[in-house]
Amino acid sequence: MVGATRDKAERAAPAIGRRPWPVVLYLVALMLVILIPALAVSLVLLNRNNDAQEQTIRALTTATVEAMTQAVDNEVGGMLTTLRVLSTSELLHSGRLADFRQRAVVALEQMGADLIALDDDLVVILNTDMPFGTSTGQTSDPASALRALDAGVAVSNLFIGKVTGRALFNVLVALPRQPSGVALLGLTQEAARLTPALQARQLPAGWHAALVDNGNVVIAATPEAELEPGTTLPVRHPVPDAAPDQWRRELFNGKTVVTAERRAPLSGWRVVAWASADIVGRPLDDSRLWLAAWGALIALFATGAALLISQRVARSVRGLRREAQALGRGEAVTPRAYPVAEIAEVSVALAAASATRQAAENEVRFLMRELAHRSKNQMTVIAAMAKQTARGADDVDSYVQGFERRILGLARSTDLLLAHGVAGVLLGELVESQITPFSPPDAARVDVAGPVVRLNVQAAQIMGMAVHELSTNAVKYGAFAGERGTLKVRWRIVDHRLDFNWRETVPQLATSTDRVGFGTTVLQSMVGRSLGAEVERRCHDDGMEWRFLIPLSALDPTAVPVPTEESPAE
């Protein structure tokens, strides 16, 4: 029945409250609580770092494009300077164009450009790329020539030369009227000659650049751009209000690109740089990919660690459960070494509780045996008290009264035994508990003193009955019979024996009978025989004195008394 009840309680216990979670779920939840915010913070930091990198790339690209623009203007500026130097030639002003042409060919040999001279009708009257006197008709770029006549200087857009069929551009300078008839002097350069100016500065990886004219026609481009001069650039069409270094996202051959530009102040051309949006955003994408990969790897590792730890914790908890069940069954529990310190402490606590329970159960069993033994002794004592009380009684009333007093005295001794248990009864408390019911109102007439002495069960019962009988005799015949009698009780330890002295002082001692009653039997027989004591009774002129010399071994609470088959009052 008890086992069935316990099993039923164990089955019903988990149903109380909400359903519990295993340890592994708590560990995984703890891991996620730590990992998710860490990944979120890492993602924010990555975005900020990417923004910083993008700003750096933007600044680097803008600076590089500006440097390319400056390099192109330097090339154009160099051509203008050459034209201005040639325009001051005396051969030109004097009309000696053949000699002027020959000197110009020598001067332009390293530059790779051709010199042209136009009249007011924009007809080419001199071209270093052709023999002197050969006429090619009107210039291939009349618009730039007209602008040069109006503004004094002009840089043309890209055009295709009539003679060479190559992509060219002109730099023109207007001249004052002179006898030679030359109105414009210009240098014609192949567009490909400007490519080194774009390559002089290194763009960030994945970026390309092109030099375009005012019609967005490519003049020159970096080799990786794969754009031929004369083609139209599909991005960065001129926008008057746009900032020169503003970044844009546009479509280039079906792909999204990021573009930047810078306009050359001298030529009016623009350097346009672009890169795939994937390349620009690749660092962030790569970082996010690595973050996701590492996050997944850490989560996988942490989950494995959580499973391993949860298994160890679960085994320890199951071990604690078995120990608790053993404790509930009253079995001995031995502390075990668990990997978790707190669980190990609980195991030690369970072992201590088990030891305490075992000790308590042993004490209960001992007390039950002791109770049975005491009950037998009590019955024997009560039977003896009944017989002796009957012998000294003259009628039923006196018998009942005397027997009742002795029963109450025995009860007081028993109360002290139950209160102190195996520790032993204090002799002082025992004496006072037996004397107090008989003491006179004047407390000064009673003097009880002695060292601390503890009595075992048998000695406490016998000494309690002895003090009770002495107190009864004091009421009948001694110190408590009159108004002026006194009682002094003293005890001490002498030569491993208890020297107990009961001295009554009575001014007018009452005459007592010589008949031996129950009290005398207790004092002389039980104390002397059961405790191995020497009992001495002295009669003084002023009162009675009793002295007991009891071996301490008979009083020791730790000593196990040897029960006798004899009645204590036979």
Summarize this structure briefly.
This protein is 49% helix and 18% strand. The chain is α+β, with helices and mostly antiparallel strands and 570 residues long.
Notable traits:
18% strand, alpha+beta, Beta-Lactamase, Heat Shock Protein 90, six-stranded antiparallel β-sheet, disordered C terminus, rod-shaped
Q: Approximately how much helix is present in the residues?
A: 40-55%
Under CATH at level 1, the class of the domain at 377-554 stands as Alpha Beta
Tally the beta strands. Answer: 18
Quote the beta fraction.
15-25%
Fold and architecture overview:
The structure is a single chain. Mean pLDDT is 78; it is low at 12-16 and 560-570. 28% of the residues are buried. The two termini are 49 Å apart. The chain is α+β, with helices and mostly antiparallel strands. Helix 2 packs antiparallel against helix 7 and helix 9 runs antiparallel to helix 11. Strand 7 (207-212) and strand 8 (218-221) form a beta hairpin. Among the domains are: 196-281, Beta-Lactamase, CATH 3.30.450; 377-554, Heat Shock Protein 90. Strands 1, 2, 3, 4, 5 and 6 form a 6-stranded antiparallel β-sheet that branches. A 5-stranded antiparallel β-sheet has the order 8-7-11-10-9. It has a 5-stranded mixed β-sheet with strand order 13-15-16-18-17, with helices on one face. It has 12 helices and 18 strands.
